[in-house]
Recover the amino acids of this structure.
């Protein structure tokens, strides 16, 4: 079945550092890809999405490019802030199928 | 406007008890989803409604789990004879058709 794999373990980095969180997927069709973020004490929020190959999603300084050739959707931000500390989930939705399949999530901690 | 709301936010149940979890979707959203999120994991799909019709219940882990949405708005997820392995956060999401899913804050269920 469809699945999403995120890099293992939490990510700890200093303010203004560059952030990358890896995400790869397995799908039989042409999925839409998403990054969701969960801030402490809050619900899941959509951060960005891309619906077809080579699309770039962006929001709040975060970017991710839909790479069909490498089946990846890595999340990047050039200069993180303490307020970016949260759990980040990569997810996919197969065409014709409404449900989301999520990765395990990555805890990101930004230290001042 | 109001987002997705869920109640109760926290529920402690003794093993063997029945529980009912409520979801109020965003007004006018046709689609409603339930997900289960175990500690340290990403959300896992349980079931999907379009209006009052339950179109996909393939993610429900056992016949102890039952969901309904009788009038096409509020939904209830019921778990009968709860077991310790049912302890998790139960997330509800709604969307307008196949568009972005908006998540509620979740109900944290602890079965003792």
């Amino acid at each position: 079945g469809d699945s999403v794999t995120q890099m293992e373990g939490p990510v700890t980095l200093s303010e203004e550092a560059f952030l990358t969180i890896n995400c790869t997927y397995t799908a039989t069709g042409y999925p839409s890809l998403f990054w969701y973020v969960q801030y402490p004490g809050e619900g899941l929020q959509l951060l960005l999405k891309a619906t077809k190959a080579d699309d770039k999603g962006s929001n709040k300084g975060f970017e991710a490019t839909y790479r069909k050739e490498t089946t990846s959707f890595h999340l990047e931000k050039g200069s993180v802030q303490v307020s970016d500390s949260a759990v980040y989930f990569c997810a996919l939705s197969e065409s014709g199928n409404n449900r989301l399949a999520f990765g395990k999530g990555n805890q990101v901690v930004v230290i001042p | 406007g109001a987002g997705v709301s869920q109640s109760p936010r926290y529920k402690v149940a003794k093993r063997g008890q029945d529980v009912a979890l409520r979801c109020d979707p965003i007004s006018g959203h046709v689609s409603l989803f339930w997900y289960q999120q175990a500690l340290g994991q990403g959300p896992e799909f349980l079931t999907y409604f379009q209006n009052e019709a339950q179109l996909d219940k393939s993610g429900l882990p056992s016949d102890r789990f039952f969901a309904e949405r009788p009038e096409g708005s509020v939904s209830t997820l019921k778990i009968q004879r709860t077991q310790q392995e049912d302890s998790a956060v139960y997330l509800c999401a709604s969307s307008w058709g196949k568009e972005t899913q908006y998540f509620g804050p979740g109900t944290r269920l602890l079965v003792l």
Residues 22 and 76 of chain B are 5 Å apart (CA to CA).
